[in-house]
Design a protein that fits this description.
The protein is mainly α. Helices cover about 70% and strands about 0% of the residues. The protein has one domain.
Length: about 70
């Protein structure tokens, strides 16, 4: 699996989990503060799409999880 797929899977999972934990309509609601993580992940995706800099991708490559 390449780094792009892992980054997309991780970002999608983080968004869904934080929406479940932060949305008052969710049965798993904990606190609305979790929505800030959703904002951060979305902003990171936007920024990495423009600048092509993704910290998670760099970490995956340095740890040897992904090579490309």
């Amino acid at each position: 699996m390449n780094a792009d797929r892992i980054v997309h899977i991780f970002a999608g999972a983080m968004i869904l989990i934080t929406l479940l934990l932060g949305s008052p309509a969710s049965p798993l609601y904990v606190s609305s503060e979790f929505l800030w993580i959703t904002v951060f992940v979305g902003a990171n995706l936007f920024q990495s799409g423009i600048t092509r800099f993704c910290l998670l991708e760099i970490i995956l490559k340095k740890t040897g999880i992904c090579r490309s």
